[in-house]
Amino acid sequence: MKGYSVFRKFLDSAQASEITNLLIEGDIDAVLKDNSPSVDVTFSGNELQNEILLYVRQEHFSEAEKLLEKEALDAINNVDSNHYLFSFSNEELSEIVLKPDEWSAFDLKLAQKLLNERGVSVSNQSILEIKAKRNEELGQQDSLPFYKVLLAYLSILAGGLPGIFLGYILMNHKKTLPDGKKVYGYDSKTRKAGKGLFWLAIPFALFEWYLFFQ
Questions:
Q1: Residue 153 burial by Cβ neighbours in a 10 Å radius (0-12, 13-18, 19+)
Q2: Are 131 and 156 within one domain?
Q3: pLDDT in tens, 141-183
Q4: Which segment of 47-51, 67-71, 112-116, 210-214 scores lowest on mean pLDDT?
Q5: Contacts of 36 (CB under 8 A, 6+ apart)
Q6: Which long-range contacts link 147-156 to residues 24+ away (Cβ below 8 Å)?
Q7: Are 122 and 151 part of one and the same domain?
Q8: Which of 34, 82, 133, 181 is 20–30 Å from 1 (CA)?
């Protein structure tokens, strides 16, 4: 989906629909995509969880976050004291604050409120700083060790097609940060190695196809 990035991931369809409708009502272009298995995979032993992805245009990420935060602020004023976060320790609540991308806006705001009520100061400014630092951490690019690069190159001797796919992934893999920005998943050195693997594997694949159709 060109121009869109994954804004949230859900396991619960009702929650996904609720958040999507909230964004649409706020004039934010949001698209829900269900990546759940199309058939029951229980009997095959497959334990893959359902995953529902909410896409938002990259330039609307900040606006969407503010809308959810406003909704969360309204909701926490009426939260039931039986909510599970009330039983969290200060350390557990701090974990939510330190990793805001892994929790909902409601959970983050409630954790912040509970910590402040317990005497642990967590200001809105500190939340912004934590999010910026978290963004920086998640934006770190991976580097493929030399021995793995070597094994990848050697693998094309057994077949060129896997080398093409692996090389393409190393060249082009990107990840979406919590602020909507997309960055390469691998550093320039690894991407360069992937590019070399990609082009080197093509002649091997063509030779295999030639032998197959002989």
A1: middle
A2: no
A3: 999 898 888 988 888 877 788 889 999 999 999 988 888 888 9
A4: 47-51
A5: 50, 51, 52
A6: 149/190, 149/193, 149/197, 152/193, 152/197, 153/196, 153/197, 153/200, 156/197, 156/200, 156/201, 156/204
A7: no
A8: 133
Place of tokens 């402040």: 116
Task: For 49-103, write each residue's pLDDT tens digit.
Answer: 568 899 999 889 989 999 999 999 889 988 888 899 999 999 999 999 999 988 9
Residue 132 tokens read as 């910026």
Q: What is the mean pLDDT of the chain?
A: 87
Question: Can you give the residue range of the structural domain that contains 183?
Answer: 146-212
Beta bridge partners of 53: 9, 33
